[in-house]
């Protein structure tokens, strides 16, 4: 009987953790300005960083 309680508690913890992760991931995708809410395949930010790095390398050490 005690094993059933342990297994039940484990299942409850697993379900609660899964629900929490699911809610957090859905909430982060819908918030405006969230770093995780990016457009798939969109590279303008990484291209801008690469250009700034290249420009900095062209200037040489300061």
Overview of this protein structure:
- With 62 residues, the chain is an all-alpha fold.
- Helices cover 73% and strands 0% of the residues.
- It is built from 2 helices and no strands.
- The radius of gyration is 23 Å and the shape is rod-shaped.
- The model has no long low-confidence stretch (mean pLDDT 75).
Reading the helices and strands in chain order gives HH
Termini Cα gap: 72 Å
* Rg on CA atoms, Å: 23 Å
Largest sheet: number of strands, sense, barrel closure: none
Provide the helix percentage.
over 70%
Q: Overall mean pLDDT score?
A: 75
Q: Report the strand count.
A: 0
Number of helices: 2
- State the shape: rod-shaped
Unreliable runs = none
Q: Which percent band covers the strand fraction? A: under 5%
Q: In terms of structural class, how would the helical and strand content be classed?
A: mainly alpha
Summary tags:
single chain, 62 residues, mainly alpha, 2 helices, 73% helix
Give me a quick take on this structure:
The chain has helices spanning 2-30, 44-59. With 62 residues, it is mainly α.
Topology:
Layout: H1 2-30, H2 44-59
Organism: Agromyces soli
Protein name: LPXTG cell wall anchor domain-containing protein
């Amino acid at each position: 009987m005690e094993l059933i309680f342990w297994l039940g508690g484990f299942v409850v913890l697993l379900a609660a953790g899964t629900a929490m992760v699911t809610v957090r991931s859905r909430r982060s995708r819908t918030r405006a300005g969230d770093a995780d809410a990016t457009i798939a395949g969109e590279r303008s930010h990484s291209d801008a960083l690469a250009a700034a790095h290249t420009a900095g390398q062209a200037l040489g050490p300061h």
